[in-house]
Amino acid sequence: MTADISLIRSSFAAVQPHSSQVTEYFYDHLFTHNPGVRPLFAAHLDEQRDRLWAALGALVANLENTDTLTGMLQNLGRRHAGYGALAEHYPAVGTSLIAALRHCAGDAWTPAVEESWTAVYGVISSTMVAAGEAAQS
């Protein structure tokens, strides 16, 4: 499975006007389906939603800049490990991210878009997990 960067960018552009809906749906989905991760987050999520959206935007903007992207993901992985995030949390986050994007993208969401986001999230999660585990050892 490979990511089509143009599909990632066009689908992200389609959901940009709905950023608050995307992040709200993401956290609702994550906590509904994985209540055990809720304690890893602050009680009030407004700032966290903003950080999530900013991180997604930065990632999408740097998809072709491998060094910058890898550095960003490694920093995120180390920080998340410090918050208690474990490798087994990442699949749930990916599922919720895809669900939120799919929900808010409307007609811009296609099987090819989902395949691309799934591939990109695989790289995101594996890079973050590796950095988090390295920081913990």
Automatic annotation (TrEMBL):
Q: Which domain of life is it from?
A: Bacteria
Matches recorded under InterPro entries: Globin, Globin-like_sf, Globin/Proto
Write out the similarity annotation. Belongs to the globin family.
> Which GO annotations describe the biological process of this protein?
cellular response to nitrosative stress; nitric oxide catabolic process
Q: Which residues form the Globin domain?
A: 1-133
GO MF terms listed in the record are: FAD binding; heme binding; metal ion binding; nitric oxide dioxygenase NAD(P)H activity; oxygen binding; oxygen carrier activity
Q: Which PROSITE patterns match?
A: GLOBIN (PS01033)
Task: Could you list this entry's UniProt keywords, alphabetically sorted.
Answer: Heme, Iron, Metal-binding, Oxygen transport, Transport
The protein here is known as Globin domain-containing protein
